[in-house]
Specification:
Elements: H1 6-28, H2 33-54, H3 65-75, H4 83-90, H5 108-136
Helix pairs in contact: 1-2, 2-3, 2-5, 4-5
Length: 140
């Protein structure tokens, strides 16, 4: 049995990349900034969970990205520098789906910051997984 669960990571990655595509399209077409920010935090959550599951860690059905990052850092300490990005994205989680519970509209600057933070989380997790897969691959 492999030390890594590539199948479950691929599934999480697929859904995270759908969020990334949504973010890119909304940014190009000046879509709703709240929705952009929401998909950015969703992307980060999926990648953080995916990284833990890739390492055969337990599935935590939580939405606390800071706790998920802690789990990731226990696996790969180099990911600790994503703490500011994860903290920023935490602001954009919407636990309710009713208009009275929505936060105030996000500014363009907040949306751009969320996209940058999500991009860094995405890039770092993908790079870490790719590096581990290459290291574990049999020499040809």
């Amino acid at each position: 049995m492999s030390d890594f669960d590539t199948t479950i990571f691929a599934a999480r990655k697929h859904k995270a990349e759908e969020d990334w595509t949504t973010v890119q399209l909304l940014m190009v077409h000046e879509g709703p900034r709240d929705t952009i920010c929401f998909h950015c935090q969703q992307l980060a959550e999926k990648y953080l969970k995916g990284f833990v599951l890739f390492h055969r860690g337990p599935l935590k059905r939580i939405h606390q990205r800071d706790e998920l990052l802690t789990d990731c850092v226990e696996i790969d300490n180099a990911l600790r520098d994503l703490a500011d990005d994860v903290a920023l994205l935490k602001e954009f989680y919407m636990p309710a789906r009713y208009p009275d519970d929505y936060p105030e509209d996000a500014t363009l600057e907040e949306a751009e910051a969320a996209v940058q933070a999500a991009s860094r989380v995405r890039t770092r997790i993908l790079a870490a997984v790719e590096q581990l897969q290459k290291a574990a691959a049999p020499a040809q």
